[in-house]
């Protein structure tokens, strides 16, 4: 079950944290995984972890906001893997300009970064792999979103939330276009995540206490959900946004 042997996955922002966890999980199920990051060093570190566990990985460092670089990387992965990418996880989404600032205090010069990364970055990656998926009659697109895209929060992330809301809407429309071609498209809206083992224990405990499951999400939690959505068994699940948040919201 959930066997991904014979498939090729591209995971963006996979040099650390949740993207790295998903890349490891996909590789453990047999997929060849193209590990993207802005930093080649980080991408290679994730590849080393995958290969040490017996998997196959390709490091591809590029900026998802560079459409030409995205297309070149997709072509390179196709050539090295011997077959096209048929699983895409759009994970890159934290822009340096995201900040945590109330909107009325946020300089307009900082608006575009989070919007462009979360919308255009994902659009470029989807566009680069979609034709091959439709031609093959099989494909999986997993878009990482956030609770901030679904619920209003008073923590200074309004523009980031707007970007996530926008890309969720795109995924819903895309799912309808590509469903007849055997391609699914879904979003995972993540809740509070433990993104660093070096985090302040007191802060982590405080955040975890607010989650019904009484813990923060982990890379392994994300990886398990992505493996399911990428699997043959999930062929009838498309156009959905799934909350992965320990019960923090249940809508």
TrEMBL record:
SUPFAM superfamilies: NAD(P)-binding Rossmann-fold domains. Keywords: Oxidoreductase. This is Short-chain dehydrogenase. InterPro entries: NAD(P)-bd_dom_sf (IPR036291), SDR (IPR050259), SDR_fam (IPR002347). GO terms for molecular function: oxidoreductase activity. Belongs to the short-chain dehydrogenases/reductases (SDR) family. It comes from Pseudofrankia asymbiotica. The keyword Oxidoreductase applies.
């Amino acid at each position: 079950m959930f066997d991904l042997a014979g498939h090729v996955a591209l995971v963006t922002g996979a040099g650390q944290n949740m993207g790295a966890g998903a890349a490891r999980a996909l590789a453990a199920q047999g997929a060849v995984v193209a590990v993207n990051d802005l930093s080649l060093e980080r991408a290679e570190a994730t590849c080393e972890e995958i290969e040490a566990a017996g998997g196959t990985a390709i490091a591809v460092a590029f900026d998802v906001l560079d459409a030409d670089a995205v297309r070149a990387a997709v072509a390179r992965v196709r050539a090295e893997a011997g077959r096209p990418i048929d699983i895409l996880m759009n994970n890159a989404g934290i822009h340096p300009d995201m900040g945590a600032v109330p909107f009325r205090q946020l300089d307009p010069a900082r608006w575009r970064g989070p919007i462009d990364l979360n919308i255009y970055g994902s659009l470029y990656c989807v566009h680069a792999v979609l034709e091959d998926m439709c031609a093959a009659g099989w494909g999986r697109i997993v878009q990482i979103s956030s609770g901030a895209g679904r619920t209003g929060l008073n923590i200074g992330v309004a523009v980031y939330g707007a970007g996530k809301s926008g890309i969720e809407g795109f995924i819903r429309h895309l799912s309808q276009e590509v469903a007849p071609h055997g391609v699914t498209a879904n979003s995972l809206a993540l809740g509070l995540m433990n993104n660093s083992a070096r985090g302040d224990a007191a802060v982590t405990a405080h955040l975890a206490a607010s989650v019904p499951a009484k813990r923060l999400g982990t890379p392994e939690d994300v990886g398990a959900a992505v493996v399911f959505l990428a699997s043959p068994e999930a062929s009838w699940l498309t156009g959905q946004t799934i909350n992965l948040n320990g019960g923090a919201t249940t809508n």
